[in-house]
């Protein structure tokens, strides 16, 4: 398989992962029994470096950070899909760095989350790794 196809598949998976994360990370089904906890995270305010904040605000902010990086990663993967294999082989810090990043995301998803992010991050890691490996082989 061509590296371009691997990177394009990874880009599509990253967009889907980003959309799912953005829509889902603030949902708290009643059966979890965390309604009171979430309300306290939303209502207890504290001062941080002159700013009035809540822990829920930190949670939402970091969740949106993750979404931004997932969408940016999709853009990077899509752009890598446009690059010739010889050029990809010449930038292993980018290609293999992206693989290492999403391998870490996969491990963190396995440790702290649930099946859907584990599957998405593992598939993305495999696509990126195969793209980097096949570019090295071709280039």
**Nearest-angstrom radius of gyration?**
18 Å
Tally of separate domains? 1
Q: State the separation between the terminal residues, measured CA to CA.
A: 14 Å
List the strand order in the largest sheet. Answer: 1-2
H/E series, N to C?
HHEEHHHH
Explain briefly what this protein structure is.
This protein has 6 helices and 2 strands, in the order H-H-E-E-H-H-H-H. The protein has 139 residues and is mostly helical.
Describe the SSE topology:
Layout: H1 3-24, H2 35-43, E1 45-48, E2 51-54, H3 55-80, H4 85-89, H5 92-112, H6 115-138
Antiparallel strand pairs: 1-2
Helix pairs in contact: 1-3, 1-6, 5-6
Q: Any overview of this molecule?
A:
With 139 residues, the chain is mostly helical. The chain is 77% helix and 6% strand.
Offer a few descriptive terms.
single chain; 139 residues; mainly alpha; 2 strands
């Amino acid at each position: 398989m061509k590296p371009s196809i691997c990177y394009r598949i990874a880009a599509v998976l990253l967009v889907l992962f980003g959309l799912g994360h953005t829509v889902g990370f603030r949902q708290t089904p009643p059966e979890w029994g965390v309604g009171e906890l979430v309300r306290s995270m939303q209502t207890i305010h504290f001062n941080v470096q002159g700013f009035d904040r809540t822990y829920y605000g930190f949670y939402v902010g970091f969740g949106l950070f993750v979404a931004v990086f997932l969408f940016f990663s999709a853009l990077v993967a899509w752009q890598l899909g446009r690059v010739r294999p010889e050029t990809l082989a010449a930038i292993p810090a980018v290609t293999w760095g992206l693989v290492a990043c999403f391998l870490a995301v996969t491990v963190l998803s396995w440790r702290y989350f649930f099946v859907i992010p584990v599957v998405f991050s593992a598939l993305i890691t495999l696509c990126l790794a195969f793209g980097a490996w096949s570019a090295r082989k071709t280039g």
